[in-house]
Specification:
single chain, mainly alpha, two-stranded antiparallel sheet, 5 helices, 2 strands
Length: 118
């Protein structure tokens, strides 16, 4: 099985295990899966970056960013790769462990947009 197929399987498994819903004050839509989990949980999972949980959480982030890119027609991932995105999220979550993974993904998107459209 190639790496891409393995990541997809882990993401699907992680999403099916992590399904829950939350609508925070800043959200205008429901978020399910790992997006509602804390940055502290992200950091703990990333201590074993090849674990199913770390991979599934990472794929949730990438899927969210790609979804926003599709909706906005802005290439948010040009010039980086999955490891680059995850490293950015690692840094964000290390400084604010009480935020959600969705908050981290939104902050990543905002930082990309600021670079693209100063």
């Amino acid at each position: 099985m190639n790496r891409r197929a393995l990541r997809f399987r882990w993401a699907a498994l992680g999403l099916s295990l992590g399904i829950a819903s939350s609508a925070g004050a800043e959200d205008t839509f429901w978020v399910i899966g790992f997006g509602i989990r804390s940055c502290g949980d992200w950091t703990a999972a990333r201590r074993a970056p090849s674990s199913w949980e770390a991979l599934a959480r990472g794929e949730w982030i990438l899927g969210y960013v790609v979804g926003v890119a599709e909706e906005t027609h802005i290439d948010l991932l040009r010039g980086t790769d999955a490891d680059g995105v995850w490293a950015w999220i690692d840094n964000y979550c290390a400084t604010d462990p009480l935020k959600t993974q969705k908050n981290a993904a939104d902050a990543f998107i905002t930082s990309v947009l600021r670079r693209k459209f100063p």
